[in-house]
Amino acid sequence: MNHDFDVISAARNWRTDTVATATPDQIISSVYASDVLTLEQLKARLSKPTFKSLQATLERGATLDPSIADTVALAMKTWAMEKGATHYTHWFHPLTGSTAEKHDSFVSPNGDGSAIATFSGKELIQAEPDASSFPSGGLRATFEARGYTAWDASSPAFIMRHANGATLCIPTAFASWTGEALDTKTPLLRSVEALNKAVTPALKLFGASEGTRVSSTLGAEQEYFLIAEEYYYRRPDLVMTGRTLFGAQPPRGQELEDHYFGAIPDRVLSYMTDAEQQLYALGIPVKTRHNEVAPGQFEIAPIFEDSNIAADHQQLTMQVLRNTARKYGLVALLHEKPFAGVNGSGKHCNWSMSTNAGENLLEPGDTPHENLQFLFFTSAVIKAVDEHQDLLRISVASASNDHRLGANEAPPAIISIFLGSELSDIFDRLESGQGGRGAEAGLLGLGTSVLPPLPRHAGDRNRTSPFAFTGNKFEFRAAGSSQSISFPITVLNTIVADAVSALAAELKAKLDGGADLNSAVADIVKATYSAHKRIVFNGDGYSDEWHQEAEHGRKLLNLRTTLDAVHHLTDAKNGALFEKFKVLSDRELAARQEIMYDIYFKTVNIEGETTEYMARTMILPAAVKYLSELHAAGGSKAIKGVAAEVEAAADELFDAVQALSAQNAATGGDEVHEKAHHMRDQVLPAMSAVRKAADKLEKVVAEQHWPLPTYRQMLFVK
């Protein structure tokens, strides 16, 4: 049965919430951060001494004063109840990669049968959710249930709304009874502080004033697919795994390249507008929306924020995208590769460093060849990426991201840096002793007086690079669309802190020895670039030649799969790095490695079981039923020919399912590492064989007999 018409008809019934009488400017100004407890809101509700104490924590990193907690809690409760909240939750990021929340009511019964609303400073600062069901990687036994959430005052509280009310969400860290981090926020906060402690002394060598603080900034682009909700629920693979385990390629995919930046379909645009309004209310500065490369694929992107807040906002963005889609009869797919044969989805992380005065340390200015501070910090990033390629690759490793990394749609699994022609030329000139600036930008003439001349950038962009300089920041393009960005940013902050510390020590030694700042920085930049320029590559990262050159000529790591990468996480150099900056202890690092193995195993295991189930109960029966019809129809040449094709593909599928069943039943060993390798080396190839046969069947079984929505329907029916 063809459901295309039903889906299109249902699409006409979507709901939009607009304010017809208000201008867009009025809507945005009234909505933006309206559900966020901002500093301005707190200032208006707190006494001056209390606000100054809290402000010292937020802006200068001072230790939080517990004595102000009751006052802040009262202000927070009052504000939240004015917004319609009846409950509060400590909102945290466990090592599942998603978020978690346990709701408690503000209501506190009195002895006389009445009730009042209460919320104390003790309840604000700390809660005790059951930690037994969250992954710990061996940090504690399952029966040890105690865990603590601790208020993160640096990330503002906010309101999450639902159909029948609202909840106050308090961003928190999550730790075990023994004080070890069971979340992604705690190491990120530690890494932000590590970066500040490393970069601030370096800035003082360049003349920065006392009181300067440094944090990393981030803007994370989010790619996603939208499909009709009806199709989603008729695909067990999408429901259970987030990706299609079957699906023959339609006659048209993304070959015509007409979807990218094309006109956004009306229903999708209404959905985007709704989601953006909700994100604005949460103070999330989304800026860009557009069609992506693949049909049915889209992107939303914010401007930069402090990285801890950006990580919180990224989790909220994914939640809002998923929840809002249902209002429009759609489902948002955030899996890295929901459809084979078309581009998957990533999450480009635009990273930089900024002072509390708003100075971007990676801003080259108009004369980057003379900007010593910029060259110094850029050199540190080059050094960091070269020395810690493994950590950057590990930070984006997952079973789902393995489907896109290394293909002609995403960066290769080899980590390299794109600097562009101008910046590469500057560093090459410094290394050679020539100095100065070669590549100039200038103006781009378009050949007609009707069009204005455009400023030409001195370097092109490179979409094949996993780590690219893009004007005043580095764009880490290998992150997966469904993952939390906290660990990749934790890694970036920590490795750059390490590189800056080393270079700052060299610079101080030269200055103490009597060298002038210009020559000392020039010497350090020259030596650093010379030692680490193997990581710089401005060419085609998809080419076979680059893979050969990177792996054999430059000796760069090529960690093709998650399991190739993850076992390096606890290498001695990595343990020493995280311990040096107090970001992760050896136990915390080992726990994260164990969890990555476990998640990989469980992800592929679920996919393998789902593949077998669908092939046995949906696809094979459809083929058998169609064969029965063909055999009953008579013995014409056409019928016999089609029957022979169907029978051959069905037999191939049956044999492949039997082989997959055997691999699903096997464990590969008792340890999770062995199980994970069994999934990669045995189950994934067996799944591929089942899919190959099933996709053959899809092309020869009559459409009315095929039990699954097809790629043609899911990608193109909006």
Automatic annotation (TrEMBL):
Residues 184-619 form the GS catalytic domain. InterPro entries: Gln-synt_C (IPR040577), Gln_synt_N (IPR008147), Gln_synth/guanido_kin_cat_dom (IPR014746), Gln_synth_cat_dom (IPR008146), Gln_synth_gly_rich_site (IPR027303), GS_Type-3 (IPR052725), GSIII_N (IPR022147). Residues 86-179 form the GS beta-grasp domain. PROSITE patterns: GLNA_ATP, GS_BETA_GRASP, GS_CATALYTIC. Pfam families: Gln-synt_C, Gln-synt_C-ter, GSIII_N. Belongs to the glutamine synthetase family. This is Glutamine synthetase. It comes from Deinococcus actinosclerus.
